[in-house]
Amino acid sequence: MKKAMTLTLAAALFSLPVMAAGDAEAGKGKAAICAACHGADGKTLIPGYPNLNGQNEQYLVYALKAYKNKERNGGNAMLMQAQAAMLSDTDIDNLAAYFSQM
Q1: Which structural domain, as residue segments, surrounds residue 78?
Q2: Which of 23, 24, 34, 86 is the most exposed place for a label (fewest CB within 10 A)?
Q3: Residue ranges of the Cytochrome c domain (predicted)?
Q4: Is 30 contained in some domain?
Q5: What is the CATH number of the domain that holds 91?
Q6: How many domains does the chain have?
Q7: Are 57 and 20 in contact (CB under 8 A)?
């Protein structure tokens, strides 16, 4: 039983980068609306808003899905929940790939 759990955990960990792999070029097309708050180059000019350029891809996927599912409620969550609600899982993966590669 312990060996099976270890193998399952190892398989999950090795598959994480694949699960979050999006199309950065497609993400670039979707990122225009993000620029209003997060800057055209992913560097915000608004104090308190996060920079997205160079952010970890898996973290961005996690964060956007958490907003979409209304699991994040602090700060500007209401704004981000509305934005994320309009995104498909593929859109989220693509945006995360785009910003992480900046």
Answers
A1: 21-100
A2: 86
A3: 22-102
A4: yes
A5: 1.10.760.10
A6: 1
A7: yes
pLDDT at 6 over 60: no
For residues 21-44, average pLDDT: 95
- In a domain, residue 10? The reply is no
Enumerate helices (H) and strands (E) in the chain, giving the number of each. Answer: 6, 0
pLDDT above 80 (res 46): yes
Which pLDDT score, from 0 to 100, does residue 12 have? 53
- Residue 5 falls inside a structural domain: no
% the chain with pLDDT above 90: 76
Residue 87, in any domain of the structure: yes
Say yes or no to pLDDT of 19 above 80: no
Are residues 42 and 102 in contact, defined by beta-carbon separation less than 8 angstroms? yes
Q: What letters, b where the CB count within 10 A reaches 16 and e where it falls short, cover 43-65? A: ebeeeeeeebeebebeebbbbbb
What Cα–Cα distance (Å) separates residue 87 from each residue in 40, 44, 51, 92? 19, 21, 20, 6
